[in-house]
Amino acid sequence: MTGERVRLRAIEPEDADALWRWHNDPEAMRWLETSYPESLAQIRKRMQDMAPNSYERTRFAVETVADNRFIGIVCLRDARPETGRAEIDIYFGESRNEGYGSEALRLLCKFGFDDMRLHAIQLWVAADNEIARHVYRKIGFVEEGRSREAFRRDGKLYDMVLMSMLAREYYERYA
Question: What is the fold of 6-174?
Fold first, then answer.
């Protein structure tokens, strides 16, 4: 899937080196729930052993159209045909705050609503991550709820905000 500035493509094992670099960048990891540190070899193995995309979990690498640079990952996960809902994960290691995320999210939502026939797509975001919340609102996500003191970073607890977009809201905005 290609937009004006970004392309969503399958994640390749060769993307592991960039992921390892991003995992060691405090700014890239600032608002992500992190796990234990991984070596480059561990990330390479995880990428090599990654399950293929399916309805339940579909991951895409985000790369720039201009120079084919791998800059992030977007994912639709926990998709269930019974409810027609899925959750978004988004992770940018490079070129943050340059508008690439907005286009990548629009392409991912188009895929979810058109190809997967989802009814709703939702995400969780730290309440204090105002840059991300602004991007999500700009695309058309609305705030639905809040989980209080649900995310810990640097010894502080943050609320998490649930946001979602319905298929009809997407089509009204982007049809």
Answer: Aminopeptidase (3.40.630)
